[in-house]
Write a structure and sequence with these properties.
Elements lengths: L2 H10 L1 H35 L10 E2 L8 H6 L4 E2 L1 H33 L5
Antiparallel strand pairs: 1-2
Helix pairs in contact: 2-4
């Protein structure tokens, strides 16, 4: 069997198609979560913390002070962008929790639909 035939069989299998659909939906879901964090959570954190923008929190490793993280990067200074890390951790927790809820519901549906099957 030729390599092209093997690839065709792989590509049309349910698992490969399911994986492709999952990747596309995951990318779209990531954009939604990113918007939730940037447009809803970060402003609320800023309000509670007196106007602090998480994505702007950083430490310049050269010891100098810069007006912003963008200015530090333009000056070629090495920066630890810990605010961005916090932002990404929040996004990860939201995505992980959402996936947990979806998997939990799918498991519940699978268990309940399996009860009707003859033994």
């Amino acid at each position: 069997m030729g390599m092209l035939q093997e690839f065709k069989e792989f590509a049309v299998k349910g698992n490969a198609i399911d994986l492709a659909v999952g990747v596309v939906i995951g990318a779209a879901f990531g954009k939604i979560v990113n918007s939730i964090v940037e447009d809803l959570i970060n402003p609320l954190v800023g309000l509670v913390s007196g106007g602090v923008d998480l994505t702007g929190l950083y430490v310049a490793l050269d010891g100098k002070t810069y007006a912003s993280i963008t200015a530090a990067r333009e000056a070629k200074a090495a920066v630890l962008a810990y605010g961005n890390v916090i932002n990404n951790v929040i996004q990860f927790v939201i995505i992980a929790f959402a996936i947990f809820i979806v998997v939990k519901q799918l498991n519940k549906l699978t268990r309940s639909s399996g009860d009707d099957l003859p033994k």
